[in-house]
Amino acid sequence: MSQSRSTSQWVWLVLLGLVAGFLSGMFGVGGGILIVPALILLIKMDPKIATGTSLLAILPVAVVGVVTYSIGGHIDVWIALLMAIGSIGGSQIGTRLLRRISRTALQWAFIGFIVVVIVSLFLVISSRDAVVDIHLWSGAALVVLGFVTGILSGLLGIGGGVIIVPMLVLLFGASDLVAKGSSLLMMIVTSMSGTISNARNRNVDFPAAIVIGIGACLTTAFGAIVAAAIPPFEANVAFAVFLVLIAARMIATMVSERRKRGLDGDAGAAPAGDTPAR
Questions:
Q1: What is the mean pLDDT of residues 82-97?
Q2: Buried b (16+ CB within 10 A) or exposed e, 119-146
Q3: Full-model pTM
Q4: At a CB cut-off of 8 Å and minimum separation 6, what does 236 contact?
């Protein structure tokens, strides 16, 4: 697979890693929301392999991000651990439900969720000194958040950070930096778990994942530094813009898939040599 890859494709992989790494550090996301479609469009990779490759590439990115955020004291191990426990089980359920639930309906529901989050980001501004108290109910709620995130990740193939970061800020009152750092820490666990499963099913392009991961590691720390340097309100604005781009990309993908299904349907209804009824 990688042996026949052109030089330009390797260059795209490096550039993809650089951009994804910065976004991961800046927003506490895995970068899969960018990596997966880019691998499909630019490298012509099978969607399943693209998803598995992205999940492996996220691993070194998350490690670098966690180290950078931990230096500033912006990591809550308990938050990450509790969410990881829920996410591992949720992702398995999400993968199984994928065959039974309309993917289009879920995508529109997720876009609606993004709109609500964007509005909320301008209503709730996090405090950099905020601390999340972990007790029985908040701990259970974090497990549930991880569980729901895992289900949506399995159904939509998205990175959990897009959901986790705003929910930690809005529902648990976490600092935006702690939310981002803890999100990346959780991704280490979920990335390792998912990669083992994908590797068994041969859904990982290891050379591509390594190149993307190395490129991403070069810019992840810079993204985290930028995130810490800007005030919370400006950070919310930047995250809102990022969410808008995600929603726009999802809408564009759904429209493209719908057109493709329409063309395939037309082709099936009028085989070559037949005259369609009018």
A1: 81
A2: ebbeeeebeeebebeeeeebbeebbebb
A3: 0.76
A4: 121, 122, 125, 126, 176
